[in-house]
Amino acid sequence: MELNVNVGEVQASKVMQYLQDMTAQSPHQGKLKTLYDMLDPEQKDHAVTRDTFHSTMRMWISQCCQSSEWKDLLSTVDELKHARQRLSEQNRSLLRSMAQSEDTNLQLTLEITQLRAKLLSAQRATVRARSLSEELDEARRALKESQERLVQAQASTCTLEELDETLTLLAEKDNSICKRDLREEVEGKLEEAIRQTEMAKKTAAINWWRALKVEEDRTKAQEEASQASHSRDKAMERLQKAEATVQELQDKVHCLQAALRTTSQQTGNDEGREAAFPKVDASHQSKRRDVGIATAPMEESVGRAAERAMETWRKVEAMVNRAVKAVDLLHVSEGRIRQARERVEAASERVERVLSKAVDAEAKLSEVETRILEKPEVGSFLLVQEEATAAQR
Description:
- Residues 1-6, 276-284 and 291-295 have low confidence and may be disordered.
- The termini are far apart.
- 90% of the residues lie in helices and 2% in strands.
- It has helices at 12-23, 30-39, 50-65, 71-173, 175-276, 282-374, 376-392; strands at 9-11, 47-49.
- Helix 5 packs antiparallel against helix 6.
- The longest helix has 103 residues, at 71-173.
């Protein structure tokens, strides 16, 4: 149908030719003739504007509606309008649910990034636990060395006691002859004992400092493990919320599919009516065909919206599966952290035992020193040595 774009008018014969092609009727027969007479009463093929065409069509439709054969068609049109309104409302609700699902999708992506960051922190905690285990091994070796030194110190104290006994015996026999030799021997032994006690004190202090450091690292690991468990609980709650939203979307999609099936059944019933009454007027069939053509795009748009909703639902389901995998990884990392914590606690207990043994050995050394100092000859010798060192200073 050619349209005069500059003026906005179409000839009446062109309009009737278009209607004839659409309805397969002659413009000089039936109700199309009345429409042609209303558009061009003088039969001069006048140009028809859009407003005149709409007004004339309204008048022609009102005249046609007065006949009884259009009542069934009007009822079906009303039903189709009602169905169209209902489907449009469902389409709007589906669009809203799609927007909500997109928001939940964004929230899930943010939560997954947070979970990944927490997984990285958990991995770092495992690396720290490994380093702590290595430090504990070093502390064990150092404690073994300190124990060996303490054993040597105890052996030296035993020898000192034996030498002290021999010294007393020799002093009783001959104080003037063996005094110098005894002084030199006692001086060497005392210097060695003092050196060994100082080394034992230093090693005990170093081991104590390492034990304190290990205790601090253990408390940090426990705090990180508690934070990881708290974040896991939050992630599980958010996953439950996401599953609830996915279930709601699935219910809405099922409702929409049921509505589509009902509309398809209604269109099938209309086709059955046309097959049962083949003698209905051709204009009646053309009107139904126009109504079907008008409702077809609406059904296609609803179908596309349903497909989009299903795609978003699949994406949300995939995101939920990824989040579940991340939670499983968190469980595994928590188990590793728990094992590392148990190892650290066992190592700390061993360190405490070794430190207690070192303290006992130091107490025994101090007792031996006091016993040596209580003897008069050794005490006088130490006083002379202190005076000599003070004079040198």
